[in-house]
Amino acid sequence: MSRQDEAVLTIFERSRPGRRAAALPAAEVPEPPLEELIPAQLLREAPPRLPEVAEPEIVRHYNRLSRRNFDLDTGFYPLGSCTMKHNPRLNERVAALPGHARLHPAQEPKRAQGALELIWLLQESLAEICGLPHVSLQPSAGSHGELAGLLLTRAFHADRGEARHKVLAPDTSHGTNPASVTMAGFEIVKVATDARGGVDMDDLRTKVDDDVACLMLTNPNTLGLFDENIAEIAALIHGVGGTLYYDGANLNAVMGHSRPGDMGFDIVHVNLHKSFSQPHGGGGPGAGPIAVSERIEPFLPRPQVVRRESGNGSRPHYELDHERPKSIGRLRGFQGNFGVFVRSYAYILSLGADGLAEASETAVLNANYLKARLSAGRAGKHLPVAFERHCMHEFVLSGRPMKKELGITTLDLAKRLLDFGFHPPTVYFPLLVEEALMIEPTETETKESLDSFAAAIDQILAEAEQDPEKARQAPYTTPVRRLDEVKATRRPVVRQRFA
Amino acid sequence: MLPAIGVDSIDELFAQIPDSLRLDRPPALPAGMSEAEVYERLAELAARNADCEQQVCFLGAGMYDHYVPAIVDAITQRSEFLTPYTPYQPEISQGGLQAMFEFQTMMSELTALPVSNAGLYEGPSSIASAAYLAIGATKGRRRFVVSRGVHPHSRETLTTYGAGFGAEIEEVGLDGGLTDAGALAAAVDGETAAVILQSPNFLGAIEDVASLGAAAKEHGALLVVAVDPMTLGVLRPPGECGADIALGEGQPLGNRLDFGGPSFGFFCGSEELIRKMPGRIAGETDDVDGRRGFVLALQTREQHIRREKATHNICTAQALNALAATIHLAWLGRQGFRELGELLVRRTAYARERLAAVPGVEPLHGAPVAREFALRLAVPVEPVLERCAERGIAAGYPLGRDYPEYEDGLLVAITERRTRAQIDALAEALGAAVADARGDLPVHITGNAPRGVG
User: Fold this and answer.
1) Using 50, 70 and 90 to split pLDDT, how confident is the model at A314?
2) In chain A, what residues touch B92 (CB-CB under 8 Å)?
3) What distances in angstroms separate CA B156 from CA A260, B122, B402, one per listed residue?
4) What is the DSSP code string of B352-391?
5) Of the residues B294, B327, B360, the one at which a domain ends
6) For A112, phi and psi rounded to 5 degrees?
7) Do residue B269 and residue B156 come from a single domain?
8) Is the CB of A65 less than 8 angstroms away from the CB of B104?
């Protein structure tokens, strides 16, 4: 077996009969055969074929696997709309305190006052940042927040005796927006983008009518541009009685500078795993709290954490309020991803009011600097900015000229970047930009890391001018090279097969 | 940096935001704090919670105080697992993708169903996701027959989601702690998209899923079964009981309590459902040099490709929590996982017998149980819980919170951390609290008081 093959053995392939890691406590109680306790037809005959591996080999196995991952702690990770900012280790430490980590979710509120107060404090902080008075932390991620927002919209209209069917969203919206719309039982109506990268107001006007339940918008949008017409958009939607939903994936651009509530939004979701530094974990956990206006508040999920003043001079106490007759109900079990709340609250405390505003400023500065650096080099010719104006926290380039002139695609460029030690930007999104590359550097990158990324792009383009094949075949230095994704979908092998 | 951009100040970059929408003051939040100060503040809040190091915890109801082995923390805290995004660039994400593949294999083995996804948010919303899938899989049926033994949070979440995608939900009651088989069979019809069960159910009782599921098969409805993964070393797996989908709360596997999250939901199904599944699925493939590798398979189901036609809206889920489960299951291994299941069953049997022998305490049902069981008390439950809490014991979950018919009910959960001595101490505390309360009560309430339907 070659070295390469050895590296990719699964934990099952490392299994040898009789090996084990765990030593369990002694039973300490009578040990009758299980059949005496549970009828035989309810019992399992063959045990699940879990691996049989000793602890040292388990540790080695997962350490080896970890070394086949690229991660934010190792290098620049400019994924657009993902806000890959530094994850402070302090947050891990405080989340692991036994008072948080080993607190049972069904603990009676009286004996979980610290946790409920933390939830309440985070609710209040997010309400202030979003400019909306009420917050529920229950949704587990951004798309879960979107679904919550759409169900709130449905309940809001139903309460007024209306059943509306349409939800508007720009053609630049995140894919989760239309998917959430369908799940919530609405019909998606796409709104075009104008020449400046904002909502096409003429197109919007033709689509606004009294069957519109909601407009979903990201602002700044996925092109990284702030929609200057937002006040007019809000007036149009509110004019026909619809709600305005803010996809908070891009909130990192405006913290402490502009608030969705002040823009006219009724419902906002916040990605704690983006703007508020919860590590992404290779695909979660995250959390997608929602902030809402007064008119939406009665419908918030339950239970809601509320603060009760004691009235007798002692400290206020916190409760789980289930008595919410108009609530849309639960979206999940217990109180939400509390461990994520701890990390994000620690982050907000660390940065404070000024720090959050400065984070957004630096995020915007970094994005504009990188955009300028790239435009000044070969990217200016081959990879032009899709909408040439100052951006907010991210920007979108188009690889269309590069494809035409150099014969390499955005995918090729992305794969070649891997050889330079960078995570590529988001690619082929938003859909309206051909061969799109969406770049979000975040505030926690230095000028030097932005410079070296720009230099790498320049070098790849220079190389492609001479030898485009090099990028077309990239990457070369990664644990594996380009993988056959078609095969994985046509004939999916999604679990280990045992002989 | 400003000259390179061609502006004089950062503020110029914010000029694209209309003045009227600029916040003209700093946000009303405290000033930033040093790392040491933040630590102290958070530690102060944490200290006001009664966690499982301060109390002996018999609370369950879906989340359990299991021991999480040290290697779970050591590995999941590695930067390489903690800090990457979803593996959209497979060439530099092989570690995460292979871990997902191993997770899927383990969950598939536990449930005895061939296909597992890489995880969803948590247990209750996974049930709603199964219902959404069932609509598509049954060509638009929207009726759901749900046992009252399914976790109350799951039933409520299903109702919440159902208000969106359209669902008619019929609940089937319990009889002797178990789903009423006759009522279930009568409730299922040709419009039923899915029959949804949980085993062990919320009262801890092990359902005869195979028999109950026959009604679903008869009418072409999917059989969806929520299971406690920690029991699957000893209990007959859902895949051998005719389940089309098995899912559940993953917390018991390698995840700490965290006051309810983050944990993960697992979601396994039959081969026919693979293209309708929600969430990420890792698949094995080859690279251009013929080397083995892993990718996100079947992405054409997902929102970032299919948008409004996606099978689900889920994007960020709980990858790190699923990794924790994978490591925990590898650590337990084939032998250890079964032994742990046996340990739970035997300690639970001991605890059930021991507590039922306490005067004023009796079993709420006589059905077989694995790791959790329901009692009924002859006195009001909440004051008894308070008395036990004063002695450092979280005695269990008061069923009256969710089941008015079990106002006198107490749900007690056992893990490998609950020793015989702790169980004995619970019996003593419960006995003392009940005796005290009974002394204060009129005789007719302590005797043959009316009961909820068992």
Assistant:
1) confident
2) 69-70, 418, 423, 475, 478-479
3) 30, 14, 11
4) HHHHHTSTTEEES--S-BSSEEEEEESS-HHHHHHHHHHT
5) B327
6) -135, 35
7) yes
8) no
Report the half-sphere exposure of B157 (CA within 13 A, side-chain side): 28
Q: What is the CATH number of the domain that holds B265?
A: 3.40.640.10
Q: What is the mean pLDDT of chain B?
A: 95
How many helices (H) and strands (E) in chain A? 17, 12
A144: nearest Cα among B43, B312, B25: B312
Report DSSP state, residue B49: B
User: Is there a domain that residue B361 lies in?
Assistant: yes
Domain boundaries, chain A: 3-66, 90-347, 360-485
Interval A205-252: pLDDT, tens: 999 999 999 999 999 999 999 999 999 999 999 999 999 999 999 999
Q: In b/e form, how buried is each residue of A207-219, taking b as 16+ CB within 10 angstroms?
A: bbeeebbbbbbbb
- Are B396 and B275 in a shared domain? no
Closest Cα of chain B to A11: distance in Å?
7
pLDDT tens column, B6-40 = 999 999 999 999 999 999 999 999 999 999 999 99
Find the CB nearest A27 among B234, B343, B385: B343
CATH architecture of A360-485: Alpha-Beta Complex (3.90)
Tokens of B73: 């923390």
HSE toward the beta carbon, residue B210, CA cutoff 13 A: 10
- Span B407-429, average pLDDT: 98
The residues that bridge with A321 in the sheet, in sequence order, are A304
Contact A48 B334 (CB under 8 A): yes
Pairs of CB atoms within 8 A across A/B: 694
pLDDT in tens, B382-406: 999 999 999 999 999 999 999 999 9
Please report the ipTM that was assigned to this predicted complex. Answer: 0.98
In a domain, B48, yes or no: no
- B424 shares a domain with B311: no
Residue in chain A closest to B281 (alpha carbons) equals A494
- Which tokens hold the place of B190? 């040709």
B208 contacts A102? CB cut-off 8 A? no
Q: Per-residue confidence at A260, pLDDT binned at 50, 70, 90?
A: very high
Range of the domain at B168: 70-327
CATH of domain A90-347: 3.40.640.10
What pLDDT digit, counting tens, does each position of A35-58 carry?
Answer: 999 999 999 999 999 999 999 999
End residue of a domain, out of B296, B327, B358? B327
CATH number, domain containing residue B354: 3.90.1150.10
Q: Would B24 be classed as within a structural domain?
A: no
Q: How far is CA B143 from CA A48, A188, A453, B150, in A?
A: 33, 25, 54, 16
* Contact assignment for B63 to A376 by CB distance below 8 Å: no
Is residue A354 predicted with pLDDT exceeding 60? yes
Which residue out of A67, A70, A86 would a mutagenesis test of the B interface target, given it has the greatest number of B Cβ atoms within 10 Å?
Answer: A70
Check CB contact under 8 Å for B166 and A185.
yes
Is residue B293 within 8 Å of residue A133, measured between CB atoms?
Answer: no
Q: Which of A190, A89, A3, A165 is nearest to B82 (CA)?
A: A89
Q: What would the pLDDT profile of B164-183 be if each residue is shown by its tens digit?
A: 999 999 999 999 999 999 99
- Alpha carbon distance B188, B215 (integer Å): 6
Which residues partner with A245 through β-bridges? A216, A267
Domain count, chain B: 2
Domain contains B170? yes
Contact A221, A172 (CB under 8 A): yes
B230 and B376 inside one domain: no
Convert A415-452 to b/e letters by CB count within 10 Å (16 or more is b): bbbbbbebbbbbbbbbebbebbbbbbbbbbbeeebbee
Asked whether residue B237 falls in the same domain as residue B158, the answer is yes
Both B159 and B308 in one domain: the answer is yes
